[in-house]
Each structure stands twice: as structure tokens, then as C-alpha cells.
Amino acid sequence: MRKISVNEDVMTTREAGETLGVAVRTVQLWVEAGVLPAWRTAGGHRRIARSAVEKLMAERQNDLAPLSNQVAPVPDSLRLLLVEDDPLLLRLFTGVVAGWNFPVELTTATNGFEGLVRIGETRPDIVVSDLVMPGMDGFEMLRALKKPGSGFGSLKLLVITALSTEEILERGGLPEGVTCFQKPVNYGKLEALVHKCFTDKLQRVAVL
Fold this sequence. Notes:
The chain is of the alpha/beta class. Helix content is 43%, strand content 16%.
């Protein structure tokens, strides 16, 4: 692993990944989604300002503080990320998930920006997201994840929203393959869909 000099003002995606503790592809996704500002050299290589990496590191340290209270990862469990800015709905969803009869490692984020950071860190099996949120909304996050070459094309994505079908279309619609649940949510159907994702994961692990 190449040692990164503290005197450098710019970093490559690999150096940024080493510093942030994530894969190069995750750094590229963050760059493409605008989470991490970058530019290209004449040769087409991405360069990232060290100050931008340090800023993201500081934001991650603050945002990840609540995660230290979570339980340790459970073998053969489903990793689920919930992206929702309403604290009441976050608590409700957490309580619903706790009542499911299969193991779920739940991580939360409050907007699309934080959601992309969490995805890069935890590599969830499934993401459940609201659409209307401050800052980077769910539409932007989903489009970044479904962009060709993102490396997250197979990630299972669910949307929970109060928007009507017409309102969603007016905002550009949802990427192909995204499942949408209208509020109020039928949590029984949601549990069935998430449980199928869990059983599919177990089958893949068994094959490996």
C-alpha cells in the first residue's frame, strides 16, 4: 500500500479510498454523485483535493457516532439501510424491524448524501429510502446508484413515499428496478419482500 504524503494537496481515488477506508469504486461513486468534489486531469484521471477528503472524514466521524451503539454484526443476517429524515418514522421503522423473525442489521441515514456514505461503508443488501429529503434527496441517490458502472446496479432498492405516482413522474420518475411503497406503508408486504431478499442471500451464501 502506497504511503500518502501529508504534503500533497491532491489525491487519487485510490489514495482517497485508503484514507477513508473504503473501496476505490466507492470513492468513484461518491465523486460521481457529488459527495466528494473532484476533477479530471488531461489524461482523464480523477484528482481530489485533500481538503475535501479531510472534510468528508470529519463529517463521517460525526455522523457515525450513533453507530457505535449498534450491536455487533450477526452472521447470516440481512444488512438493511434506511434513508429517512423524519425522526418519528425512523423510530417507527426501527421498532417494526425489531419485530421481524429474521436477523437484520439496521443502519440509518437522514438524506441521500449520508445514504451514499453509509452504502460505501456498510455494503447493505437492501436500501429502503424516502424520496423527499433535504439536501440530496432520494431521487438523486437512487439515480447515482443505478448509473451504469456505479458498481451498485444489483443492490436491492425500495422506496417509501407519500408522493403519488403522478408526482413521482413529474420529478423524473424512478430508475428501473426500484420497488415503490406508498405511505401509509403496508408493513406486512414490506416484511415479506425484505424476507425474500434475506432468503435469497442465504441461498447465495450456501452456493458459495
